[in-house]
């Protein structure tokens, strides 16, 4: 008969669950468990206090996603480990604590079958601490190996997505935001969602703030990291995306005066009980952070760009020494924060008098100077669609003198705001547009790029991020002629717009 001891079975059961590390302090009756663990290929680290052993084991769980074991004796050993278990539970980190206890004739039994269950309950759902109690006499009891059956290794936790209607709501909120902020917590680190979170930040251009252990999911020196202005970012944000962080003391409970009393929270967490804790979530996304962020990115890519997305990609491609000419309302306001200047006298905008229509003239002057000085610095003229209208015909001047100016029209179909083509058509059906069309609107999706191509320059109609990047790169490469990028963005891309749109929507049912 091939005999195995209880200790060997424990060790082999752990090994078959891919448990690789054990931290603890041995004593009767669990010395043999530690020895058997080593024999089974598990690394054993003897510590000086069970509390530290449990901290160590739970950190392995956080860092690898697979639980480690904290091995303790009964009584004081287990009591010392409690601090570590509480810490693991509060951190949502998996750990398995194994405690040896008195022999079975002195109390009730614990069985080996509990191992797979312990692994599963430590990592499934919200991760945390689990405890297994081993009766002392089972450690050295022998049984026939043939009678033992190991349960197969517990697979990684299943990943769930959020309700698609909630995703739609979240994306709407985010696009209507004026000062959005993403908070990255240690849940995002544990979820290994760095790729998805990076894409969310870089596609939307939204600034982010890491919690202490959320640091490094995206690096602290990322241009969108606003950790240096933490208090201000928290207070001024109107919509916050909470990725794996709780609104507890670390985040001042989400309450004023640290947060705006009107802040809307889009909360992503895999623990249903956590949703709307302390602050009612405007959108509660129950699911895995990586999966939920992918869902919302898929939805966003089917929608028109907003200011942040457009400016984010423009700023990535513009050379640091370019001369930025800018005018418009939102275009100039948001552009001021998103498009950086590195050199003096390289920004010209609506200025002291707030004059609209100055852009093309300023751009022509800058380009003529560049030509005279034979410098290779590019002139980029970023215009709201309304602002462009004031002096748009100067495009002919640019073409006549072959000035390689790049005009980017950020086109939201109006002054401050506009409507989409469908709504516009509905309004036209209702009768006299002079009594119906909101005074802020301009013709939806006007093809301003054709003004440029009419005179021999390059005109681009841009709807997507890919089109924006390739048109801008082509324009930067072209030093012979001016270009115009007509960037169609969401006409409901800022809060004012959003209100306007919802006012209009009361006429038309829904948008
Ligand atoms: P921090 O200390 O960084 O603020 P917290 O510990 O308060 O972070 O919050 C972490 C949150 O992340 C917990 O509510 C936990 O349920 C959640 N979480 C852990 N893993 C995932 C995951 N894969 N997907 C979604 N949420 C997760
Ligand atoms: Mg937190």
TrEMBL record:
Coiled coil: none
The enzyme's E.C. designation: 4.1.2.63
Domain Thiamine pyrophosphate enzyme central per the UniProt entry, residue ranges: 167-295
Keyword Lyase listed: yes
Source organism (scientific name): Cyprinus carpio carpio
Residues covered by the Thiamine pyrophosphate enzyme TPP-binding domain: 330-487
Metal-binding is among the record's keywords: yes
Obligatory cofactor(s): thiamine diphosphate
Annotated Gene3D superfamilies: 3.40.50.970, TPP-binding domain
GO molecular function: 2-hydroxyacyl-CoA lyase activity; magnesium ion binding; thiamine pyrophosphate binding
InterPro entries: DHS-like_NAD/FAD-binding_dom (IPR029035), HACL1-like (IPR045025), THDP-binding (IPR029061), Thiamin_PyroP_enz_cen_dom (IPR012000), Thiamin_PyroP_enz_TPP-bd_dom (IPR012001), TPP_enzyme_TPP-bd (IPR011766)
Protein name per UniProt: 2-hydroxyacyl-CoA lyase
Thiamine pyrophosphate enzyme N-terminal TPP-binding domain span: 5-115
One Gene Ontology CC term in the entry: peroxisome
Reaction catalysis annotation: 2-hydroxyoctadecanoyl-CoA = heptadecanal + formyl-CoA; a 2-hydroxy-3-methyl fatty acyl-CoA = a 2-methyl-branched fatty aldehyde + formyl-CoA; an (R)-2-hydroxy-long-chain-fatty acyl-CoA = a long-chain fatty aldehyde + formyl-CoA
Origin: domain of life: Eukaryota
Pfam families: TPP_enzyme_C (PF02775), TPP_enzyme_M (PF00205), TPP_enzyme_N (PF02776)
Keywords, alphabetical: Lyase, Magnesium, Metal-binding, Thiamine pyrophosphate
Family: Belongs to the TPP enzyme family.
GO biological process: fatty acid alpha-oxidation
